[in-house]
Amino acid sequence: MAACSPFHRTKELVMTQLRQRMSEDMQVRNLALNTQRSYLQQVSLFARYFGKSPDLLGREDIRTYQVYLTNEKKLAPGSIHTAIAALRFLYSVTLEWDWAPEEVLPLPKKPQKLPIVLGPEEVQQFLGCVLDVKHHAILTTCYAAGLRISEAVQLKPTDIDSQRMVVRVEQGKGQKDCYVMLSPKLLEILRTYWKVRRPETWLFPGDRAGEPITRDAVGHACAKARDRSGLSKPVTPHSLRHAFAVHLLEAGADVRTIQLLLGHRSLATTAHYLRIATNKVCATSSPFELLPRPAATLPPPAKPQYF
């Protein structure tokens, strides 16, 4: 194996120092671990594309990279948002460039798409096809408590409070602790699961000792159950959270209550579910029904028959 040139060693050292500094900047700002990993990965891809350390690249290089992500990689706007957020942090915080990042790094407009939501019967059909007791318990929890998969995999047995009938979510999205509902039927399922598996540190342990189940493992189990169910709609762990919100809304729960249960920072985020709750939308009468009915028209008199 050929030895690296001094130039490559220097470039690698600079990149390593810059990576370390960016990592520390994110740590002192208490960014979520998943955000830190994602940002570092995005900056690494950016540097690899040009074969240079990011501190040697300028505005035109950034613009070229944005065009590449859009036209050649054909990434979805959400994925481009992540890449741009990482570069904004790098240049405005770590490198302390004196510029307006929102001008140099504009965000693409996201299309407003409505999620495809499972009906109550479809949720029941899907959960009935989750054969493994642990997978069935965690996916049922995602639906019954409206949890994100990142929150469900981090649950501990002590987070299930059967006295108050709540589930404690520790450091959920936005690094906030909160409580969500614990339905009696879910409690029964979790107790049955606990008697079979006897989890200790984590409520849903993974294959590696001392670690919780991974999101990928739950996603794989979800995909297998969806195939068994024969459902035509897409089903992911997050689909169950969507279904939780829509079914509550259609059952008469108010948007503010659902906001608290979902842990949304903004009520506007929760209000999007109003566009999906068909029972609410379709139960409202059209103004056409309020128009007066036209007077009945009499048929013309019949002509006499002579033959």
Automatic annotation (TrEMBL):
Under SUPFAM superfamilies, the record lists: DNA breaking-rejoining enzymes
Locate the Core-binding (CB) domain: which residues? 13-95
Keywords for the protein's UniProt record, in alphabetical order: DNA integration, DNA recombination, DNA-binding
The yes or no answer to whether the keyword DNA-binding is present is: yes
Q: What region holds the Tyr recombinase domain?
A: 113-286
Q: Name one GO molecular function term.
A: DNA binding
Q: GO biological process annotations for this chain's record?
A: DNA integration; DNA recombination
From which domain of life does this come? Bacteria
Family per UniProt?
Answer: Belongs to the 'phage' integrase family.
Q: What is this protein called?
A: Integrase
- Where does this protein come from, organism-wise? Mesorhizobium tamadayense
